[in-house]
Design goal:
The complex is a heterodimer of chains A (332) and B (259). Chain A has 332 residues and is α/β, with parallel strands linked by helices. Chain A folds into 2 domains: 50-247, Rossmann fold (3-Layer(aba) Sandwich); 250-313, Alpha-Beta Plaits. In chain A, 35% of the residues lie in helices and 30% in strands. Chain A is built from 11 helices and 13 strands. In chain A, the strands form 3 sheets. Chain A has a 6-stranded mixed sheet with strand order 5-6-7-3-8-9, sandwiched between helices. In chain A, strands 11-12-10-13 form a 4-stranded antiparallel sheet, with no helix packed on it. Chain A has a 3-stranded antiparallel sheet with strand order 2-1-4, covered by helices on one side. In chain A, a hairpin with a 2-residue loop joins strand 8 and strand 9. Chain B has 259 residues and is mainly α. Chain B has one domain. Chain B has 14 helices and no strands. In chain B, helix 2 packs antiparallel against helix 3 and helix 2 packs parallel to helix 8 (114-130). The longest helix of chain B is centred in the middle third of the chain and has 32 residues, at 137-168. Chain B is globular and about 55 Å long. Chain B starts with a helix and ends with a helix. The chains are: A alpha/beta (332), B mainly alpha (259). Chain A binds chain B through residues 14-15, 66, 69, 72-76, 78, 90, 93-95, 97-98, 100, 102, 104, 107, 109, 111-114, 118-119, 121-122, 125-127, 154, and chain B through 2, 5-6, 9, 12-13, 16-17, 87-89, 91-92, 94-99, 252, 255-258.
Chain lengths: 332, 259
């Protein structure tokens, strides 16, 4: 595997003007501003292999957008080195951006009042795409995303999901080597979400496109990525396969129990009670103890009369929430 | 060509809102009538203003109106620069393999100002027919260069305004005072103003280089050496250089701060 993206010791500082408050604040701010320095990225290192689908995740304000903007050549980092496909993104911008496609989830690259196909034609000229190549690409995108009905309509008449499909197609017209997706599934309904996910996987397969996506939807991560990079407070906290993280929490189980009759108080040795309502109770395994079904049944049926129970692992969202919490604790 | 396609897209977009387009153009004509009427009334009271006749002044108005309208039509993208930053459109432009200036010219074309270009040209023609000038090749060249210089200077002011908006995000009103102020001021021969105002609008913002000075050359009036008046439009165009440098520096700063 060849490395297509390399981030070396990237730091990014922002100077944020600090607003004064009080009587003459507006006047004073005009003449002399106080600045606060915010370290959006602190010594970020990572690399991404060609053909990977990488989930770039982290809580709000962790530095995800800043990283994407640096990678797409919009921002210049304060210090550090970044090589993507042999280019430094913020140098030779024009040459570099031919190789990338970017979808910013909430802002469009298409023209509001003009049929979508016209916007595509403009992009064809911007990227200097050859006629036959454009035709082939459009045909492929058309089949994969079912765009036929959408192309002759102006963007303003399309639903959110239809817009996202067109956005994805627009960013891929020039067949970029690398695709950056900033929250591609935000606000989409279930069917469209699945369609978009399938499409991303499909593109990765047929064109071998390297895809970096940021998302808050953990199902995206589970369905799409083979690798995640977790960022928090401007630092990389985890970089590796998602399964490793999942396995780390695989021991923790949530057990829901239904009793034959309501109990006033429930106590169970070796398990933590999370909630209890009439004849239903939810337990959690204690840290570093493995769950054995037989032992659990033996233990609980000593005192209680149970009808049914189910055992679940932590959901992907819960694992992530756990991770965020854990790393925040580490920092203190 | 890419620019042709941009124009086609803008025409298509504009045609989606025909009523809006019509009303805007109508408003433009009203403004125009008011402006010309103001100058005409002034000359009803005085035969000449600072030695300039009505038609002399009309040519002044013609130049200013045409050049302002041309820049406002085609360089609208620079006018809207603060919005491009706010909405993140600038980020979009930065991930395209085309120069940012080319894209800004393509970003917005304001067709409602087209009417003003035509009116400006009509005024200029009326003035040129009635003005008391013996035309020769040099004079024609100076007049043409005055129009070009006007477009360049106004465009340069837009560049500065756009550059400043990187630092402030908000479109500061004082920028509008400078651009619109220069426009209002340029409607009258510059020698009616006080010395300091004249100097500012000659040496700092070279408004005089596309109206007062070249016109002095055409009319053969004023106390400034004729050869200097003749090349003044060329000198005025140099204003573009520092403005362009300022804009490009601001853009680099944007890429550093990414507001």
């Amino acid at each position: 595997m060849t490395k297509i993206i390399e981030f070396k010791n990237i730091c990014k500082e922002f100077k944020i003007p600090e607003k004064r408050t009080g009587k003459w604040s507006t006047f004073l701010n005009f003449f002399k501003r106080k600045y606060k320095i915010i370290n959006a990225l602190k010594n970020v290192n990572f690399s991404i292999d060609e053909g990977d689908i990488v989930g770039y995740i982290g809580p709000n304000g962790a530095g995800k957008s800043t990283t994407i903007k640096i990678m797409s050549g919009i921002l210049t980092p304060t210090t550090g080195e970044c090589i993507i496909d042999g280019y430094t993104p913020w140098k030779n911008r024009k040459e570099y951006v031919k190789n990338i496609g970017v979808v910013f989830g909430q802002r469009s690259q298409l023209w509001w009042d003009v049929p979508v196909i016209d916007s595509f034609e403009l992009l064809k000229d911007i990227y200097k795409i050859k006629d036959d190549e454009y035709k082939d690409t459009l045909k492929l995108l058309n089949e994969a995303l079912d765009l036929e009905q959408l192309l002759p309509r102006p963007l303003r008449q399309l639903s959110l999901g239809q817009k996202m499909k067109c956005e994805l197609a627009a960013s891929l017209l020039h067949r970029p080597k690398i695709l950056f997706l900033d929250e591609p599934t935000i606000g989409l309904d279930a069917v469209t979400k699945l369609a978009v996910r399938d499409f991303i996987k499909y593109i990765n397969k047929v064109w071998h496109t390297t895809i970096i996506l940021t998302t808050h939807d953990m199902n995206d991560i589970e369905a799409l990525t083979n690798k995640i990079i977790l960022i928090g407070k401007g630092q990389i906290l985890y970089n590796g396969s998602f399964d490793t993280i999942k396995n780390k929490y695989a021991n923790e189980k949530i057990i829901q129990v239904e009793f034959a009759k309501p109990y006033e108080k429930i106590l169970l040795n070796g398990y933590e009670l999370i909630s209890h309502d009439k004849n239903v109770a939810v337990f959690k395994t204690k840290k570093d103890t493995e769950f054995h079904t037989k032992a659990f049944i033996n233990e609980i049926s000593k005192e209680y009369d149970i009808i049914d129970f189910s055992v679940n692992s932590l959901s992907v969202d819960e694992i992530l929430a756990r991770l965020y919490k854990e790393y925040e604790l580490q920092e203190k | 060509m890419l620019y042709k396609k941009y124009i086609k897209m803008h025409i298509k977009s504009s045609l989606e809102y025909k009523t809006n387009m019509f009303l805007l153009s109508f408003a433009q004509i009203l403004v125009f009538v008011a402006e010309v009427l103001g100058i005409w009334l002034l000359f009803q009271r005085f035969d000449t203003v600072a030695g300039w006749t009505f038609y002399d002044s009309l040519l002044l108005v013609g130049i200013v109106m045409t050049t302002f309208a041309v820049t406002e039509t085609f360089a609208r993208g620079y006018d809207e620069f603060p919005n491009l930053i706010k909405t993140g459109t600038l980020d979009r432009l930065l991930v395209r393999p085309v120069s940012i200036h080319y894209q800004l010219f393509g970003a917005k074309i304001e067709f409602s100002k087209l009417g003003r270009i035509i009116l400006g040209i009509i005024l200029s023609v009326i003035a040129i027919i009635n003005i008391n000038v013996e035309w020769n090749m040099l004079k024609i060249l100076v007049l043409i260069s005055a129009y070009v210089c006007g477009c360049v200077v106004i465009f340069s002011l837009m560049l500065v305004a756009a550059g400043i908006s990187v630092y402030t995000i908000e479109n500061l009103e004082f920028i509008n005072i400078i651009t619109n102020g220069s426009k209002e001021l340029a409607y009258y021969p510059l020698n009616i103003y006080n010395k300091w105002l004249t100097r500012i609008f000659t040496f700092i913002i070279p408004v005089a280089c596309f109206n007062y000075l070249p016109l002095s050359f055409l009319l053969g009036t004023g106390s400034i050496p004729m050869w200097l008046c003749a090349i003044s439009p060329l000198l005025g165009m140099l204003f573009l250089i520092p403005c362009l440098i300022f804009f490009n520096c601001s853009l680099r700063r944007y890429q550093g701060t990414g507001t």
